[in-house]
Amino acid sequence: MHEPPAPNPETLLVLYLGSEEVVAQTCERVGAESVEPANPYWVRHGVSLTGPDGFLVVLVPALWPDS
Question: Which domains does the chain have, with CATH numbers?
């Protein structure tokens, strides 16, 4: 049996939510404070939160490019 992976600053779950309003609603719903991600790209393009498992979740107000 293997242990689960440990959180790493570059291991992200990125969710493209489509609008600033949806990002704000999601942040309010989960009640998490934003955190500073290791990669400055995500500072400019999303809101980073720490998930319950310790991994970083990035909420992006844009749509996925192929949408």
Answer: 12-60 (3.30.720)
Q: How far apart are CA 58 and CA 19, in angstroms?
A: 13
> 5-50 pLDDT, tens per residue?
899 999 999 999 999 999 999 999 999 899 999 999 999 999 999 9
Angle at 19 between CA 22 and CA 39, to 5 degrees: 95
Would the pTM count as exceeding 0.90? no
Give Cβ neighbours of residue 56 (< 8 Å, ≥ 6 apart): 7, 9, 11, 12, 13, 35, 37, 48, 49, 50
Q: Coil, helix or strand for 40?
A: helix
